[in-house]
Amino acid sequence: MSTKNTPAGRPEEKALPRLVPATDILEREDGFYVYMDMPGVKKEDLSLDLQDSELTVTGKTSVVAGEKENFIEVQFGVGEYRRSVSLAEIVDRQKIRANLKNGVLELFMPRVEKATPRRIEIQAG
Amino acid sequence: MVFDLDFNTLFPERMHRLFEEVFKPEFFAQRRLAYPPLNLSEDASTVFVRCEIPGVEMKDIELTLTDKSLIVKGERATEKGKYFRQERPAGLFQRIVSLNVPVDRERVKATLVDGILTVVLPKAEECLPKKISIDIA
Question: Which of A102, A105, A111 best tests the B interface by mutation, with the highest count of B CBs <10 A?
């Protein structure tokens, strides 16, 4: 049972298929790193939204195939990638950095710098 | 007491449903049988092979063209660090595409954009459809 589909999706559907990007979360000395596989997503089609402690990544893939091609085998197509990551309290929200290269989104989330210890003067009186 | 009931033959519906669930010819199969995902298409004059391989540079992909097939081979490196979650594929990968038509080896081109590798293989001259004129004797 095969339905004739083009990688551009079924013409009747308005919404793009929802895809979940494969995600790696790791920690290094300088902070947390999140890597998401989002092949076919260009920088302008990618958005990051931070709401409370939840960072939502959304990316639309761009159509790659020409119109006149006949498909013999289809294993991937267009869609919309969406994934949310919860941020821990120790992540410094202002210093989050994002980089998209070769279809991989790299999120760098540094830790909040601890306040330097200081002595408290004791007043007599 | 030994039961030798084969539920799948007694209830063929269940066998059918089992296959449907596991081997769903879904448009986006979440459980792929081979990595990287590959699209194979053609038009009148060209064969197109596309693979989703994010996170690798062109120099880390090995493309080999034999007279009957195209082999895409490479390795996805893992990042260093303490992992809390690992979902991205890592390690060596290889896909072999059998070509059912001869291709013009000199004009084969490959590009890697946003993690999608596209290999354009023009079909060889001799296999393109040609018009044959009929002489009336």
Answer: A102
